[in-house]
Every structure is written in structure tokens, then in C-alpha cells.
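In response to reviewer comment 3 from the previous cycle, which asked for concrete evidence that the modeling workflow produces usable outputs, we include below a single protein chain processed end to end. The sequence was submitted unchanged, and the resulting C-alpha cells are shown without manual editing.
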Amino acid sequence: MKLFIKYMVSNRCKLAVKEQLHKMGLHFVVVDLGEVEIMEELSAIELDELNKGLLASGLELMDDKKAILIEKIINVITEMIHHSDEVQKVNYSEYLSERLKHDYTHLANIFSEVKGISIQQFIIYNKIEKIKELMLYDELNLTEISYKLNYSSVAHLSNQFKKVTGMSPSQYKQYKDKKRIPIEEIGLKIPN
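The workflow returned the following C-alpha cells.
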């Protein structure tokens, strides 16, 4: 049985889901960002019990087709930007279409209708949060960060960073209160 889970965007979320499945004596085939495949078929009562357990961890079962598709879009973007060590040299619209087996225009329309922002803006917000994270670790310089996140240049990265945060990367680095947005909240509010 395949289940879709809202707000499941990190390895910590995967652990919480595995723990809940284990508590209920359920056996999983796959636990991935946003979706789980279990060996058992669950009754409505068992689904409700699972959902209650997930809610305690800030997660939630989904059954609405639009919501499931939105969550898949979010998870593909999150995985691409936050959980991949590979340099992203892909066209995001083609990648999303290919991974989700939907026309990009369809994905973009549903996403902006439900989330109130475009997929492109959501990708930018995620990239800005990743830039903040990489700058805090101080392992890569801006040139390396711009390459890793597929920016055409450091200037492009810096301009986009300033447009979203109101400060340049170097100003951000010197800023004492380095605010970051948790992955699961990106796109819910405008970053600053």
C-alpha cells in the first residue's frame, strides 16, 4: 500500500515515520521523502491511528490528489537542492516533468494555485536557504557555491540573494543574527 505524507522533507522526518510504522507493527518496503510503501493494507481505523501518530511528529497523511502532487513537487525540489551532493546542471522544469510524469505547465499551474507562489520562486527560496547554510558551514567560497547550485555566475547568485534577503552574501555573512527558514517552511512566508 502506498501512502503520501505531508511535510516529510528531511531524514529526521523519515526516521519519525519509520518509528511510527514500527510502533504499529507495520512493515515498509520504501520510506522516501513524501511517500511510504508498506506491505500491509490498512483499514480506515488503522489509517486514522497512523495519521494521529504522524501528527504528533508534525507530519500528516494525504489523500487529495492535488495536495499529493504539490507535495511531490516540493519533495523533488527539496531533494534536488538540499539533499543532493551532485552539481545541479539541469533545467528544473524538464527535471520536474520527467520525474513526476506531468507536463510542466500543469505542474506550475497547480503549484501556484495552491501555494500562491510559482515553482520558480519556490526554487529560488530553496536555493537562497541552501546558500545561507553553505555560507554558515564556511567550507565553500561563493564561486564554489554558485557552481554547486547551478548559477551562471557569482554576480547572478549575489543579485538573487540580495533581491530575496535584502542584503548581499558578504553582508549576510557578517550579520550577527543569521536567520534561516526551516526546509518545511520555505515558501510559506517570504524569506528575510
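The chain has two domains: 2-63, 68-185. We consider this sufficient to address the reviewer's concern, and the full set will be provided in the supplementary archive.
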